[in-house]
Amino acid sequence: MKKSFRIIALGLLMMIPFMTKAQDKLxxxxxxxxxxxxxWRGAYQNSGFSVQPTLGLAYKNFSLxxxxxxxxxxxxxxxxxxxxxxxxxxxxxLTLTDYWWNGxxxxxGDYKNDHHFEASLTYTFGEKCPLTLGWAxxxxxSDDNDEGERAYSTYISASxxxxxxxxxxxxPAVGFTPWKGMYYAEKAGFMDISLKASxxxxxxxxxxxxxxxxxxxxxxxDKTYLIAGWCIEF
Length: 234
Description:
This protein is 10% helix and 55% strand. With 234 residues, the protein is mostly beta strands. The strands form two sheets. A twelve-stranded antiparallel β-barrel has the order 1-4-5-6-7-8-9-10-12-13-14-15. Strands 2-3 form a two-stranded antiparallel ribbon. Strand 4 and strand 5 (62-71) form a beta hairpin. The chain starts with a helix and ends with a strand.
C-alpha cells in the first residue's frame, strides 16, 4: 500500500509543473466550515464544535483537495485529514479519497491499518432536476473483516435540492449501506436520513455568510442529531 501511495503522490507531483504553466486556468480555493458537531454518514465523530478547513486546486476537469476536521471543545476530540482527487465528466464525478481520522496523538503513516481508501462516483441530473446519486466503496486500507478479507464497505446516497422562498435551500438526503461492512453496519440498512436548510446571508455588497441547520436520523445506530454551522469561502 505504501508503494501504491508513493506512485500516486509522485504522479500528483509530476502534474504540478504542467498545471502551473497555465496560471490563468489553475484555480486555488479555500473554505473554512464551523459546525456545532460532526456527523459523517450517520456516525458520530466525537468532535463537538469543530473547525473544518478545505484547501483545493482545480485544473480543467481535475481537482485535488485536502480537508480536515479538528475539535475546538474536546481535548480528546477527533482529528481528521482527508485527501481527495476528483475527475468530472459530463454530469459524473469520480473521486479517490484517502481518509485518516485516528486523532492528533497517533502517527499518520500507517496506511494499511490507519487509513481508509475509497472510490466514489456521483451523478447530478442538472438544474431542472437537482437530484444527486452517489456510490462509494472502500477498496483498501483498514477495511478487512474478522477473517482478514476485504469487506468493501459501501455507502449509497441520494439528495435533492428544493429552492424555497427567502432564498432558502432545502435538501432532503438519504444514505444506505447494501451489506455488512467493517465501518458502517453489521447488515444492510439506512445509515442516515436528513433534512438540511441553508441560506447565504449578505453582509455588505461583496461578502456573504452561508449558514445551515440540519436534522439527522441514523436508523442503524438508533441516533438523532440537530446540528448547525456556517462557512467562510475565498
